[in-house]
Amino acid sequence: MNQRPITVDIFPAAKVIASDGVTKGDTLSFADELVMDDVFRIDADATLVPLNLVTENNALRRADAAGNIVHLDSCLTLMAPEGDTHEALILVEVEDDSVAEIFLLPLGELRPAVDYRLVGLARHTATRRFAEAASGSFGRGTRITMHDGHMRPIETLAAGDMVLTRDAGKQPIRHIGQATMRASGSFAPVVITKGALHNDADLVVRPDHRLFIYQRQDHFGAGRAEVLIKARHLVDHKTVLRRRGGFVDYFQLIFDEHHIIYAEGIAAESHLISAQTRHGLPPGISSPDHAHRPHLDYEVKNSLIPPRQAVSLLRKASTR
Question: How much is the pTM?
Answer without folding.
Answer: 0.70
